[in-house]
Amino acid sequence: MGLAGDLKDDLVGLVRNPTDEQKAILVAIVAIAVADRYFLWIDFPFVVRTTAAVGVGFIALFVASYLLTGRLVPPDEDDEEEYDDELSP
Predict the structure, then answer these.
(1) Segments forming the whole domain that contains residue 41
(2) Does a structural domain hold residue 85?
(3) Which residues contact 45 (CB under 8 A, 6 or more apart)?
(4) Does some domain include residue 86?
(5) Is the model's pLDDT at 79 over the cut of 70?
(6) Which end of the chain is more exposed for a tag (fewer CB within 10 A), N or C?
(7) Residues 6+ apart with CB under 8 A from 26
(8) Which segments cross the bilayer (predicted)?
(9) 3 state SS of 26
């Protein structure tokens, strides 16, 4: 199928059954859009407005991630292995 098929499958998966990461990213995108419109209303310069909006998006991303998963950063599958210390007897 290629790239177009993969993008279609990802979009269908996002709409029908989004993962926690996709939900957090969607919250961040909405927060960036709302913050950008709010800072435009205050009449901030373009660079300040976009930088602040991205900062608000990062804060919203971490808050949404924490509320959805109970952690600030989702765990990696590789981290669940037991650590084997080679130096201990």
Answers:
(1) 18-69
(2) no
(3) none
(4) no
(5) no
(6) C
(7) 18
(8) 24-40, 46-68
(9) helix
Ramachandran bin of 43, using left for φ above 0, alpha for ψ from -120 to 50, beta for the remaining angles: left
- Residue 48 to residue 39: CA distance in whole angstroms: 9
Tokens of 14: 């996002």
What digits encode the pLDDT tens for the residues 27-72? 999 999 999 999 888 888 899 999 999 999 999 999 998 888 887 6
Tell me how crowded residue 30 is: count the other CB atoms within 10 A of its CB. 13
What type of residue sits at position 49? R
The DSSP letter of residue 81 is S
Domain presence at residue 74: no
Number of domains in the chain: 1
pTM of the model: 0.69
Taking each helix axis from N to C terminus, what angle separates 46-69 and 20-42, rounded to the nearest 10 degrees?
A: 150
